Amino acid sequence: MYFTAIPDHSKPGFDEQLHFSKFKKHNIIFNALSSYGHCDKHVGCLSFKTVLTGEEWYGVNNNRLAIRPGQFLVLNDDQTYSCNIAGNEKVRSFSVFFENEFAASVLQDTLTSEGGLLDNYALTNSTLPEFFQTLNNFDLELQQHLSGLIASLENFGYVAAMMDESLVFLLRYLLRVHNKDRSRSNHVQAIKSSTKTELYKRLCIAKDILHSSFMENPGLDFIGASACLSVPQLVRQFKAVFHVTPYQYLIRIKLEHAARLLKHTNNPIHSVTWMCGFEDTSAFCRAFKSQYGLSPVGFRTQV
Question: How many C-alpha atoms does 157 have within 13 Å on its Cβ side?
Fold first, then answer.
């Protein structure tokens, strides 16, 4: 199923039960351009969320996180969440909701040897992995795959067989991302595997706060309290897993955002400074040159 508009849940006569009844029973793709969209509560299936322009805010487990271009989020089956689009800029959102049996069959194919598949090709493991529901960055492979998928939709419309083939590869990619997260969680300084997993989830909350609220310069006390970590524990475990401290990570996010603005807009340097959460233009220019080897003006000229 394919939707090119976000439904207005507040519209008189909107049948929310009928709308949500389609989920889990079909693979569903949303590819919509909108300046407004709001859903207070949705219990979804395994899904992939991203935006091509603008930003979309999600509420997951009492935490708010923003998805911006170049980032994606995976939400687990039966996860309750809210989503919101509201702003001056129109948002091009792209979401995929995976039908449960389809996702389980891809998982089965990924985890089972070829010999096992020959012996029991129709076997389907209905248990889906629990993904770490955290913001991830696009890489070249995902960028190329989504570009091809969207081009197919725009050129040929929604052809179920063609889309299902593409979603097989998208799911396999997401499973590799999940495995990388599990591997990264082993860097948590703890003995029990369950403790490592729980602490990694909390560190992901801290990381997502930095990504979502970098312009507001969140303090360590706020980040730690939001992630249920003491400040010393936050700093120590964050450095062990992500190899930088939370503050160093925050500066990196700000500078990456500044690089995007310098590349894609004509905003003056002082505007880029405050749009990235820096209070002083001179300090911003020094930090940018330290990171990229060029001043902001030189970087803009080069790219």
Answer: 1
